[in-house]
Amino acid sequence: QPERAEHWTRSVCSYCGVGCELELGTADEQVVGVRPVLDAPVNKGHLCVKGRYGQGFAQSSRRVLTPMLRREDGWQACCWDEALDEVARRLLALQAAHGADSLGVLGSARATNEDNYLTAKFARHVLGTHNVDCCARVCHAPSAAALKTLLGTGAATSSYDDIERTRLFLVAGANPNENHPVVGARIRQQLRRGAAQAIVIDPRRTELAELATVHLALRPGTNLPLLLAMAQVVLAEGLHDRDFIARRVDELEAFAVSVREWTPERAAAICGVEAEAIRQAARLYANTRPALCFHGLGMTEQGQGTEGVMALINLALLCGQIGQPGAGLNPLRGQNNVQGSAHMGCEPGSLAGGIAIEAGRARTEQVWGRALPQRPGLNLMQMLDAAEAGRVRGLLVLGYDLALSLPDSQRSWQALKRLDLLVVQDLYLNETAARFADVFLPACSTLEKDGTFMNAERRVQRVRAALRPRGQSLPDWQILGALAARMGRGEGMQFESAEAIWDEVRQVWPDGAGLSYARLDRGGLQWPCRDEDDPGTRVLHAERFGHGVRTSLRPLDYRPSPEVCDADYPWLLSTGRNLYQFNAATMSGASALQALRPTDTLDLCAADAERLGLREGQRVRVRSRRGSAELPLRIDARLQPGQLFATFHDPAVLLNRLTSSERDRWVHAPEYKVCAVQLERV
Ligand code: SF4
């Protein structure tokens, strides 16, 4: 009912990493209408279904609006004083008994940059540990690690506007039409116009695959051999960019030796695609300029996720497809502020700005007025291992439903159960809170507070409060400040406003120093942006490479996933999101979107359904080596025979009972995309 709106507030959609700007129409402290910002640089007047119809989460009856303590007879509402005293007392007791590293904190991709900065500061400055992480660990940590290792910065190298500048898209392990719909629509429009071609690397015949010149429908878990073979073709046929390599890239000979044996025929046998299609893709990528790569969780949620992204970077370096308009490498970040949460220091190895601890230590200690911890921290997966072993005892979790979204639920839940103290700070009593938490602290949503988000193209944009905080809910940064004060460590944690926090961020992050609220209020800016006159950086590495800074190609080895199909578990299941729900469905499930896709589905192709005598909507049981789940069947023509796909949004299904504990070797991201299962009708 947008006609009821008394006031319109410009803000940013908090769902995916596209970061669309929208206007929220409000009346009587309710969102009554949503419209796109017509001149927004990212979405240019468009919004997807989530942006338009998914903003009702703040006014949902599921909101928990008072602090709560779990007593022997269940949850009991209490006042802020009581809740904060309890958390402070128990954190201090654990710290005194078991040391600072027995505690950990997890930031949130649904919270603002300011919230996440203060979360990381709370861990390091108040608790005295680098045990701080966020959900990037389970999605694009491999992208950040690969980009940082090979190119020096763990972020997208291009801008969304490069979509209209490129001649070729390489879309790897991503389905932007469902998961980043406004970007997907922009790519689709270029393909339909004939302005660009596409290579799609994806097991499913997605909408973009239908429009692609080459679709490489590989077996899940085999990205790396396919990309090694593409590099082999480029070198064997002399298609590499000799001038670019001479100026900017080292280790060509060692790299050429490393891929020599990766013929398309060898890769084809592993990946289940035609060798000729690999050749065609390699030639197209090397010969079409500029070419722009987008990759998603189909690349990263693999046992070799980091190496897979490194293989993409190798290919771009070989072909000179980086550092210029229309070319580059772009992780499609899942949540709008997942780039921001990690970049604000919610990562055990880096401080705000993604700066390695030792490189940023002196500056941060000077601004904070306190020494940083010396001992290295644990990432999320390591914290769970340590919790299972009794070494991590207390965890503070902001806006992140661990119980529903971590892999191999049985094992993850064991770790959560062993904690002496679990504090959840969220809008709702999510699965983690309902099952395992000792204390619930009601945070307000991004519709109720000011701050900034950072989207997947490094653009920082202003989030503005359209509603007053519901009930007793507070912005995350205020809760953390109050908690620090209760612990007797409030100095440096008290701020008047989100802007005051951001001004401190700009002191410790030189590449963000130019991003003042005064400028951001006139429109988002892309970092690096080093001073108030800096217009921001649309294409990363152009200037840097132009000034002669070089990088090296990285030889890589393929290691097949230990998760294999056999006679008992003959089907290969991958998990992912759909258009209408979002991750653990905490926000989308509390909005009008819930009616559009109320539960998860197990998708398989029509030929397999017919062979098994299964029909659409029928309930089936899927069982892996770790657990089983029941859910309705959906016939999906995009899948190949033998492959299954399922979403993981519904707590009643709890699909992650099935998924594997296998992790990426570099950053420990879980291998959600490769899961051998058996299938039976219920
Ligand atoms: Fe929101 Fe992403 Fe949709 Fe844009 S594309 S409206 S950011 S969910």
TrEMBL record:
What cellular component terms from Gene Ontology apply here? membrane; oxidoreductase complex
Give the Gene Ontology MF terms in alphabetical order.
Answer: 4 iron, 4 sulfur cluster binding; formate dehydrogenase (NAD+) activity; metal ion binding; molybdopterin cofactor binding; NADH dehydrogenase activity
Keyword entries, A-Z: 4Fe-4S, Iron, Iron-sulfur, Metal-binding, Repeat
Q: GO:BP terms for this protein?
A: formate metabolic process; respiratory electron transport chain
What range(s) does the 4Fe-4S Mo/W bis-MGD-type domain occupy?
6-62
Q: Which domain of life does this protein belong to?
A: Bacteria
Keyword Iron on this protein? yes
Q: Does the keyword Repeat apply?
A: yes
State the family named in the UniProt similarity comment for this chain: In the C-terminal section; belongs to the prokaryotic molybdopterin-containing oxidoreductase family.
Entry protein name: Formate dehydrogenase subunit alpha
